[in-house]
Amino acid sequence: RRMASPLAWALLLAAMAPVNGYYFYLSKDVPRCFIEDVPHDMLVMGHYEVPREAKDIVVFIATAPGSMDNKHDINGEELMVHKANGGEGKFAFTAHTDGEHLVCAYINETHPLYRAQNFKVELRFDVGEHATNYDDMAKSEHLSAIELEVRKLVDLVKDIRAQQQYLREREVNFRSISDSTNFSVMWWSILQTLVLIGSGVWQIYQLKTVFNSKKWD
Fold it and tell me: Which residues contact 12 (CB under 8 A, 6 or more apart)?
């Protein structure tokens, strides 16, 4: 049986790439946040659509993960602050570290045109090769159709390798945490056993003392 070539796998993964799309209503008291778990040097692009009157009122902020556990951190380093355009627009940022990046949308209540209304927001994320605008690249670099397709495949393979490396690192980290947890559980079980044995020995000693005292009486 013939095995699928790497190029075939790359094309299959490109066709199966998920599209993270959301729509929600944004109010002044309830910001909306989303987590994008990506490796370092990965491009993340957000495409949004808001009402015309939401221009400069709806704001998007992306923050880096926490430095200790690579989990999302609302107080982390700000990678991007983007004030929405009226109608459709987009923003982008590049991950500086591995981990869960937090992207939040909120309302700038201090804007002079804000009238305490809610806004419907449509939001979609593209990551890595899918976030690159190849039409603009082809025009700026004067690429032919074949050269452009080759560039897409090269970028796709790079993204796949980066994701695989990131998943391997996470697997190693998870395995280390699991081993540490199992080690702690083992010692906790041993400690419990020793406490039970000590408690039993102490109870037997106390019973012997009571019986001996009653015998002498």
Answer: 4
Which residues share a beta bridge with 63? 78, 102
Q: How many CB atoms lie within 10 A of CB 78?
A: 11
Given the DSSP bridges, would you call strands 32-38 and 78-83 parallel, antiparallel or unpaired? unpaired
pTM here is 0.60
Closest residue by Cα to residue 121 from 84, 78, 93, 91: 84
Alpha carbon 181 to chain centroid distance? 23
Q: Beta strand 87-94 with 99-107: parallel, antiparallel or unpaired?
A: unpaired
Locus of tokens 């355009």: 85
* pLDDT per position as a tens digit, 93-118: 988 888 889 999 999 888 888 888 88
Q: Under a CB-based contact definition with an 8 Å cutoff, are residues 102 and 73 in contact?
A: yes
37 vs 40: CA distance, rounded Å: 10
Question: What is the three-class DSSP state of 82?
Answer: strand
